[in-house]
Amino acid sequence: MHNIVRLNYLYRDAGNDKAWGSVDFTNPDQLAIKEVERRLRSDFEQGELFIAHQVGLPELFFYATDPITEDDHCYHEFHSVEAIETPEAVAPKQSISEFLTAVRSAAEAGWRAFNPADRLPELRANAAHGS
């Protein structure tokens, strides 16, 4: 069994419609969940908002497949991190330490907000390819 850190996040549009996602990371440095959450919240805007593609997370936008509405924006929202165990065969490739470094780099560079319409062709191409 692997000890894994699961990041739970969501896209919530201005109408409060939600799409949920999660990503698993290895934890070879044995970071405590509270420490992981503290570090994420310190780097996310307002302690919870981030731009998913800047840190390599799948985007959960509705407008990748549905029409853009006035409720759409570019931010994803941090929900939680949790420790889980998974069988050896499903170990993630990226560590939570590597992800925390990517988040810190993105925060230091500045979260780059964008207009959803500007990235629509790329988002729809990714949605069509299942990524």
What attributes does this structure have?
about 130 residues; alpha+beta; four-stranded antiparallel beta sheet; about 25% helix
Walkthrough of the structure:
With 131 residues, the chain is α+β, with helices and mostly antiparallel strands. The chain has one domain (2-128). The chain is 26% helix and 25% strand. The protein contains three helices and four strands, in the order E-E-H-E-E-H-H. The protein has helices at residues 33-43, 96-109, 120-128; strands spanning 2-12, 18-26, 49-50, 76-86. Strands 2-1-4-3 form a four-stranded antiparallel β-sheet. Helix 1 runs parallel beside helix 2 (96-109). The longest helix is centred in the last third of the chain and has 14 residues, at 96-109. It is globular, with a radius of gyration of 15 Å.
Q: Return the domain count.
A: 1
User: Which residues form runs of ≥5 with pLDDT under 50?
Assistant: none
* Cα distance spanning the termini: 27 Å
Strand proportion: 25-35%
Strand order of the largest sheet: 2-1-4-3
Strand count: 4
Mean pLDDT across the residues is: 89
Class from secondary-structure proportions: alpha+beta
Instruction: Give the C-alpha Rg.
Output: 15 Å
How many helices does DSSP assign?
3
The succession of helices and strands, N to C, reads EEHEEHH
